[in-house]
Design goal:
This protein has 129 residues and is mainly α. The protein is built from 5 helices and 2 strands. Helix 1 packs antiparallel against helix 2 and helix 2 (25-53) packs antiparallel against helix 3 (71-89). The longest helix has 29 residues, at 25-53. It is elongated.
Length: 129
């Protein structure tokens, strides 16, 4: 269980770093606040979802898995849906420009910085200073 918590916190810290690098100084504080609030609110959402699901009385035997499918497994499946959606959306994220620069990929880092500049200011990436 400790390994699970450790790996989860590692992905969260990477998300905060990427978010901090991608936002302008003006929007950074608000973005970090919203990110932290969503993390706290997700715990409340889990409780709200668990309240109607866990009291259900059913058991289905699944032969090919060799398990009894019960309400707690349904809750785990429902809670996994946002995680799966997020994993798919991660493919749309850009690499950290700082990481690209440390790897010697300066042109790619500049391209990412131009994209971030264009998103944050609404101006063309070619105007990046």
């Amino acid at each position: 269980m400790y390994t699970l918590y450790f790996s989860t916190s590692a992905s969260n810290s990477a998300a905060y770093t990427l978010l901090g690098e991608s936002c302008s100084a003006h929007a950074r504080g608000r973005s970090m606040l919203l990110c932290n609030c969503s993390l706290m609110c997700s715990q409340a959402v889990v409780a709200v979802l668990a309240y109607p699901i866990l009291p259900l009385k059913f058991t289905y035997w699944i032969d090919f898995l060799g398990i009894n499918y019960r309400p707690w497994r349904l809750l785990a499946l429902v809670m996994a849906i946002p995680c799966a959606a997020t994993a798919c959306l991660l493919q749309l994220f850009h690499e950290s420009p700082k990481f690209l620069a440390t790897q010697g990929k300066y042109k790619e880092a500049l391209s990412v910085l131009k994209n971030i500049y264009a998103c944050n200011t609404g101006k063309s990436g070619d105007n990046y200073p």
